[in-house]
Write a structure and sequence with these properties.
Rossmann fold; 10 strands; binds magnesium ion; binds adenosine-5'-diphosphate; 29% strand; alpha/beta; 6-stranded mixed β-sheet; 4-stranded antiparallel β-sheet
C-alpha cells in the first residue's frame, strides 16, 4: 500500500537548514497496522505528514496504492487525500462551532454531497461509534474520548484505505486510550491500513510492527 525509499526532508528557516528525515525506507502492506515510535523531535510527524500528502519531501520515492507521490499540485494532493486517506490528530481538530454530526459530515461537503444526504451518512457513522445521542452537541460538551471518536468517524466517512493517526491517544487517559485502540483494531479488521504515531508502549504493543525512529532514521523494526 505504502512504499517509501530513501526519503529525505529538510526544513529551511532563514539561514538554517534542519535535516529532519535522513533516508527513510519503509513498506507498509495493505491491511497492516503499524506504529511509529521515537523521541520528540525525531521526525515522526514529518514522516506522517509526507505519507498524508500534507507536505513534500526533498529526495527519494513515495508510492501510495500504486500512485507516485512527488510535488503534486494542491488539487491533485487534495483529491488523493480525499479518496485514500483519513487523519486523526492528538488535538482532535474538530471545528468548535459545529456540532458532532456536522463535524463528521464535513469531508462529504468537500465531495459536494448535499447537506441532507451528508448529515444522514454522518448519523450512520455516529451510530456505529456509539455517539448517536451526541450528534447535536458541540465539541466543548464532549469528553476527550468522545471527541476522538467524532474525529475517527470524520476520518472514516470517506471510506479511506489508510488511516494516519498522530499521537491519537496523547490527550486521553489510559482506559480511554485502550478503548481507542479497540476501535483502531476494529477499523483495521475491516481492511483499512492503520499507521499510528505514539509515545506509549502499551499502544505500540497492540500493532503488528513497531518502527523506531531516531534522529530522522529508522533504527529498529520490531514485529509483534
Ligand atoms: P516529532 O513528531 O517526532 O516530535 P517532528 O517531525 O514534528 O518531530 O519535528 C522534527 C524536527 O523538525 C523538530 O526539530 C522540529 O522542530 C522540526 N520542524 C517540524 N516542523 C517544522 C517546520 N514546519 N519548520 C521548521 N522546523 C520544523
Ligand atoms: Mg509529532
Amino acid at each position: 500500500m505504502i512504499h517509501i525509499r530513501d526519503i529525505h526532508k529538510s526544513y529551511i528557516t532563514g539561514e538554517n537548514r534542519l535535516h529532519v528525515l535522513k533516508g527513510i525506507d519503509l513498506d507498509i502492506a495493505e491491511g497492516e497496522m503499524i506504529s511509529i515510535m521515537g523521541a520528540s523531535g525525531s521526525g515522526k510527524s514529518t514522516l506522517l505528514n509526507i505519507l498524508g500528502i500534507l507536505d513534500n519531501y526533498d529526495k527519494g520515492e513515495y508510492s501510495l496504492n500504486g500512485s507516485k507521490i512527488f510535488n503534486l499540485n494542491e488539487k491533485k494532493a487534495a483529491r488523493l487525500r480525499n479518496q485514500m486517506l483519513g487523519f486523526v490528530f492528538q488535538s482532535f481538530n474538530l471545528i468548535s462551532f459545529k456540532n458532532a454530526m456536522e463535524n463528521v459530515a464535513l469531508p462529504l461537503y468537500y465531495q459536494k454531497i448535499g447537506r441532507k444526504k451528508r448529515n444522514l451518512i454522518a448519523m450512520e457513522y455516529l451510530d456505529r461509534l456509539g455517539l448517536k445521542d451526541w450528534a447535536f452537541h458541540l465539541p466543548s460538551e464532549l469528553s476527550g474520548g468522545q471527541k476522538q471518536r467524532i474525529a475517527i468517524a470524520r476520518a472514516l466517512i470517506t471510506k479511506p484505505k489508510v488511516i494516519l493517526a498522530d499521537e491519537p491517544t496523547g490527550a486521553l487517559d489510559s482506559v480511554t486510550s485502550m478503548e481507542m485502540m479497540d476501535l483502531f483494531e476494529e477499523i483495521n479488521n475491516s481492511g483499512i491500513t492503520v499507521v499510528i504515531v505514539t509515545h506509549e508502549h502499551d499502544i505500540s504493543a497492540r500493532t503488528h510492527r513497531i518502527i523506531h525512529i531516531t534522529d530522522g532514521m529508522i533504527t529498529d523494526i520490531i514485529k509483534n
